[in-house]
């Protein structure tokens, strides 16, 4: 969370609680939940939009042949992989962590199928797949990506195994890599 946002919320809460201090406990019991709701609504947009805005800026400068991605030349003909982008854009429509993981798996499968079609002479590996996954996530910019990762990790992470676990690890690695890409270049 941006430091200024955190400071603003703390200051607002501190001032508000001082104002309410003279109120009877029954009034405080009614006011504090509403105050917290207001603060968390304010925080929500600051906290959950940070990566989304970073990815928006990246989307303007990152192309399929961006030097940070190093997508092999043979796969560039399939760029920008719109079917994979379409798949991941639907992730917020799913409510359960399992359904969100299935959406991620469908996107990963779509990317692998497209990479296989682009180079029938070899099987694409993680070094081929992850850069394309990063590009697809940047261009699709699914809403609340970080909270989705946290939601799945918290409520379904221990249930992941086999293929699900493999693709989940690739996905989270791609999200972590996106955080490190400089959006000024």
Automatic annotation (TrEMBL):
Q: Which SUPFAM superfamilies match?
A: VPS9 domain (SSF109993)
Query: Which terms are listed as keywords in the entry?
Result: Endocytosis, GTPase activation, Guanine-nucleotide releasing factor, Membrane, Transmembrane, Transmembrane helix
Describe its membrane topology.
Peripheral membrane protein
Kindly report the protein's main subcellular placement as a broad class. membrane
Task: Identify the residues that the record assigns to the VPS9 domain, covering every copy.
Answer: 45-185
Q: What is one term from the GO cellular component aspect held by the record? A: membrane
Q: Which GO terms describe its molecular function?
A: GTPase activator activity; guanyl-nucleotide exchange factor activity; small GTPase binding
TM region(s), chain numbering: 27-48
> Where does the secretion signal sit in this chain?
none
Subcellular location(s): the record lists: Membrane
Key word Membrane present:
yes
Question: What SMART domains does the entry give?
Answer: VPS9
A GO BP annotation: endocytosis
Family, according to the entry, reads as follows: Belongs to the GAPVD1 family.
Can you say what this protein is called?
GTPase activating protein and VPS9 domains 1
């Amino acid at each position: 969370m941006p430091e200024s946002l955190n400071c603003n919320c703390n200051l607002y809460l501190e001032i508000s609680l001082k104002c309410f201090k003279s109120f009877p406990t029954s009034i405080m019991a009614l006011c504090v939940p509403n105050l917290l709701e207001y603060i968390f609504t304010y925080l929500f947009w600051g906290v959950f939009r940070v990566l989304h805005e970073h990815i928006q800026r990246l989307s303007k400068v990152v192309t399929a042949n961006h030097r940070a991605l190093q997508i092999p030349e043979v796969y560039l003909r399939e760029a920008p992989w719109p079917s994979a982008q379409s798949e991941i854009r639907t992730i917020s429509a799913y409510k359960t962590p399992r359904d969100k993981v299935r959406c991620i798996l469908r996107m990963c499968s779509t990317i692998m199928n497209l990479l296989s079609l682009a180079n029938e002479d070899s099987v694409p590996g993680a070094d081929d797949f992850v850069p394309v996954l990063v590009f697809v996530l940047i261009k699709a910019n699914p809403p609340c990506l970080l909270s989705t990762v946290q939601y799945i990790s918290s409520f379904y992470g221990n249930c992941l195994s086999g293929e699900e676990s493999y693709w989940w690890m690739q996905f989270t690695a791609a999200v972590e890599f996106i955080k490190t890409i400089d959006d000024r270049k």
